[in-house]
Amino acid sequence: MALGVSGIGIAPNFQFQPIFSNFKSKCRSRTTPTTVLARISNNTSDPSSSNGYPSPTLTHKFSGKPEADVIVIGSGIGGLCCGALLARYNEDVLVLESHDVPGGAAHSFEIKDYKFDSGPSLFSGFQSRGPQANPLAQVLDALGESIPCATYDSWMVYIPEGEFLSRIGPTKFFKDLRTYAGPNAEREWRKLLDAILPLSAAAMALPPLSIRGDLGVLSTAAVRYGPSLLKSFAQMGPKGALGATKLLRPFSEIIDSLELKDPFIRNWVDLLAFLLAGVRSDGILSAEMIYMFSEWYKPGCCLEYPLHGSGAVVDALVRGLKKFNGRLSLRSHVENIVVEDGRAIGVKLRGGQFVRAKKAVVSNASMWDTLNLLPKEALPEPYQERVKTTPQCESFMHLHLGFDAEGIRDDLGIHHIVVNEWERGVDADQNVVLISVPSVLSPDLAPPGKHILHAYTPGTEPFELWEGLDRRSNEYKELKAQRSEVMWKAVERALGPGFDRDKCDVKLVGTPLTHQRFLRRNRGTYGPAIKAGKGSFPGHSTPISQLFCCGDSTFPGIGVPAVAASGAIVANSLVSVSQHSELLDAVGI
């Protein structure tokens, strides 16, 4: 989400299924969601970190064979999916991670026996299988891994009109609409669902695991799944097929064509788009929104939370990597990508050690951070300028709490969304707060009788407010207190009078500087701010031979499903078509 909420901050596990005609086999280069990277520790604070989050450990000397077929820089979801699949393809893979825990924005960390998610917490589709399954589920299936989940079907919403339990499913939300928005909103919502749900078959026609970055895609995707795509168009009829042409256009165009004018409906759709991809409805692809609608508003649908936290997702990918003899080296900070005669031949680690890549180097860093790893003379000026001028999403404020469950209502839900003012827009700073209390579904994340909580402003915190501040200065501490207050108030609203902020066992406030420092994210950004219809995410190849990129700076974009798909696409592109086809056969898609 982007929420990396996949769409933003929440990074929900919605799937984005690209349409074949939108796939570009050769583009230029360009990582997920969201938050602070904290070292596993039992300390409530670290004197070297003004945020209370334990500081990253120093890089140690890499030990092991100093070469691999493929080197992957970064162990975010995209990098792990890429590395694990390459290992599944019998490639010698080495994933190099700067920090001492894997997972990037999806890692977990522990303080005083409280186990926190750092980023993604809203998921769906883990149990899906087959061609229309979630990209991450397809990767896990290929690795022979699964993730036990708790299921649920609602989250609390606090909006200017009031507060209510928003429920997914084909009919339950209509009751909420009648109560909080009126009969006109209900009519328009029915009109929207009637128009877009028939398009979902086309939006999900190509399994992301079938895509690759060369002409072999004609065999693994077009020939293999073309008939089912044509069949879905035929079943929709002329009107539906015409509507399917809008899948690669902004979702707002569909809303406008249906003449939907109810303020609540338009605001609600903007909020869903923002949670999914970090942009409003005029910036998100219709295909992405339509898939989400089909997942949330079909019979039998549910949301999922991985038992033992989002770190369980990372653990499953690492198990898959190691199962097929892939290697993961932590505290192995890449200082430079080494380029020789126009080819990426390996990386230089902090300390000067060289590790050779015989076939390829794959960067799971953002486009801006990848650029900084490369010698300037190795890249064309227009390419460098294009990366430097790509607009960025803003950063985050984070609040991680560990507190006593006594006095907190027993029916507390896992997710809460607070919108302070519709007029300012869901993408305005200090306006939307997302709250996750995963211990209500996975009690092992907190000590007995306790809860953990993660609140954040989803990709809306301006980096400019923080740029240049000394993290140990009073100015920084005062700004932290000021800018975190909106999250504290949202938490107090969601938890009720039984919650006392002064009695929390753990209180951690993260800022854009925390984001920048712990996640190695340029300016602490959530990712590229590329709007549908006005630009497209770069592909996975670069001007440098044997250098590829995956993650939220590449197609298909921001969010857990998207970065999983990007990692799979790069892995598929580095092996033969026959190997790729054999894998698709093996997982039954």
UniProtKB/TrEMBL annotation:
Tree of life domain: Eukaryota
Pfam families named in the record: Amino_oxidase
PANTHER family tied to this protein: FAD_NAD(P)-BINDING OXIDOREDUCTASE FAMILY PROTEIN, PTHR46313
Domain Amine oxidase: start-end pairs: 77-572
Gene Ontology MF term list: oxidoreductase activity
Protein's organism: Buddleja alternifolia
Gene Ontology annotations of biological process type: carotenoid metabolic process
Name of this chain's protein: Amine oxidase domain-containing protein
InterPro entries per UniProt: Amino_oxidase, CrtISO-like, FAD/NAD-bd_sf
